Structure formats: C-alpha cells, structure tokens
Amino acid sequence: MISGIGRVAIGLACLLVPLSLSSCNRPAHPVEEQTVVNPDEWPSWGRTGSETHYSPLDEIDTGNVGKLKLAWHFDLEPGYTPSTPLMAEGKVFITTGHSHIRALDAVTGKPLWEYDGGTRDRATSSLQLTWGNKGIAYDTGHVFW
Q: What is the pLDDT of residue 19?
C-alpha cells in the first residue's frame, strides 16, 4: 500500500520525467558560444566557459621570456586565502578573507575600488567564518561573489 506522500512523489516523478526527456531532442549549445572571451582578458577561473586555462596571446615566446619583469604588486593582508584573480575591462579583481573584493588597475596595480560584504560583522559564530572565500565571477560589467 502506498501512502499519500508516496503517491505525491510518484505523481511528481511521472510529471517531471517526461518534461526532462522532452529536451533530449534539442541540439546542444557549447558553453563556449555563450562566453566569447576577449583574448586580452581572463574573466573566469578557467578563462573561458569550457575552462580551457589557455591564453591565445603570443607576445611572450622563448626569445623574450627571459626579459619579463615585475610590473607591479599588491600586498594582501596575511592569514587569508585569496581567490583566483580575474581580469576584464582593464581591471584585476580579487577577493580575500571573508568576501572582501578589490578591483585594481591591470596596468598600474592602483586600487580602484573595494567592497567588504560584512561577513565578519554578520557572523553569529566562529563556524560561519570558516566557510571562507569561494571566489568571484565576472560577466558583462558585473562582479559576482
């Protein structure tokens, strides 16, 4: 004998399975089509929607790699793990600690803006502070964390 809850679950499954299968005959759209990336930018963890981790830039090669030097640096506060930096629209975005986001000029390293999500102030226990930094994402002029 099936209980009332069991009948509801079976009914939902009968409704959802055909809906999920109805999209099987549609052509797949690669993620790459939706995330066309400027070759000069690195707007996500893997650079592209398919996370290739590959840059098509070719200005650095075996003939000039030895001439590379540090252009600028930015000191982060100790004790916090930074996320993978992103680069878009001439800015480097990085987050550290408990959702503290910074935007730096990609050419000079000059701080442009910063935002502290206030996680430390809102945490009601030390356990909530251990959740840590999960990184950031960038899309069309917006930074998400």
A: 47
With a CB cutoff of 8 Å and minimum separation 6, the contacts of 14 are none
Q: Is the full-model pTM beyond 0.70? A: no
What is d(CA 10, CA 18) in angstroms, rounded to the nearest whole number? 13
Please check the confidence at residue 121 and state whether its pLDDT lies above 60: yes
Angle (CA) 35 31 51, round 5°: 80
Confidence label for 86 from pLDDT (cuts 50, 70 and 90): confident
Gyration radius of the chain's alpha carbons: 22
Written as one string, the DSSP assignment of 83-120 is PPPEEETTEEEEEETTTEEEEEETTT--EEEEEE--HH
| In contact, 133 and 81? CB cutoff 8 Å | yes
Number of H helices, E strands in the chain: 4, 6
